[in-house]
Amino acid sequence: MSAEYYRNVKEHLKDNQNYVRGRGFEYRVMSLLRKKGWHCMRRFGSHDEVVQGIGHVPLDVTAFKDGKYLLISCKYSIYRGTTINDDPKWPALLEYAKVLGDKVVPVLATINEDRKVKFTDLRTLGDLFYRMKSPAKDIDPGQMEKLIEEANYLISLCKDMIVNAKDEKTKNKWANTMAVTINVLQRILYRAGMTASSEDIASLFTEEEKKVES
Questions:
Q1: 84 exposure class (CB count in 10 Å sphere: 0-12, 13-18, 19+)
Q2: Distance between CA atoms of 80 and 135, rounded to whole angstroms?
Q3: How many C-beta atoms surround the C-beta of residue 81 within 10 A?
Q4: For a designed S-S bond to 48, which of 23, 35, 56, 165 qualifies (C-beta 3.0 to 4.6 A apart)?
Q5: What is the Cα–Cα distance from 177 to 6, expressed in whole angstroms?
Q6: DSSP designation for 117
Q7: Collapsed DSSP state (helix, strand, coil) of residue 99
Q8: Which residues, including other chains, have CB under 8 Å from residue 50's CB and lie 6 or more apart?
Q9: Are 139 and 126 a contacting pair, CB within 8 Å?
Q10: What are phi and psi of 189, to 5 degrees?
């Protein structure tokens, strides 16, 4: 595209405060990653990537380091912390990364209530930079079953609270609790030598989004 096109887009967007704030957050995300040795690039205009067979993929920043690629969707709000619930298109980013290969990691960058950036690995809903320990030995199957049952109950409760939330702040609060619970469940399963597929994790959210839309 021509230089004139980019000048016109800049002129159109410069007075859009949401765009300016979102762009500032994307630069903050890149700054944090660069301090960790990642090479970063921001997509101009913050437009979705349209991928045949998948649809609109939210993609704001890409990063590369040691043969690994990060595809990052950034969600920011000046009024509150943001969560996975703020990006209804994230399953498309997860699917796109899967098509590109094992070395491509789909990431959601959000801002928490303390105004700190959080990087979520969308394959597990865990912290991108959290290093899991090796699977443990001598796991009590009965205890594991009880823990998983309690986690699933809490996830179900969160889904009900999201559907019945009367305002956006409450909805986000329960969506965040749900994401944290799934993250903990993933760690428990990993320590027990078990895993849940990314499709299973995505379904916990996408099914709920369909209920909210209906």
A1: buried
A2: 36
A3: 20
A4: 56
A5: 41
A6: E
A7: helix
A8: 56, 57
A9: no
A10: -65, -40
pLDDT tens track for 155-203: 889 889 988 988 888 888 888 788 778 777 777 776 676 656 666 666 6
Q: Residue 32: how many CB atoms within 10 A of its CB?
A: 15
Give me the residue spans of the domains in the chain: 1-131, 134-214
CB-based contact 18:56 (threshold 8 Å): no
As a whole number of angstroms, the distance between CA 90 and CA 206 comes to 9
Topology given in CATH for the domain delimited by 1-131: Trna Endonuclease; Chain: A, domain 1 (3.40.1350)
Give phi and psi for 115, each to the nearest 5: 65, 30
Name the one residue in this structure whose structure tokens are 């049952």.
Answer: 149
Within 10 angstroms of residue 203's Cβ, the number of other Cβ atoms is 12
Q: Is 126 within 8 Å of 114 (Cβ atoms)?
A: no
What's the rounded Cα separation, in Å, for the pair 175 and 87?
Answer: 11
Per-residue model confidence as pLDDT tens digits over 100-112: 999 999 999 998 8
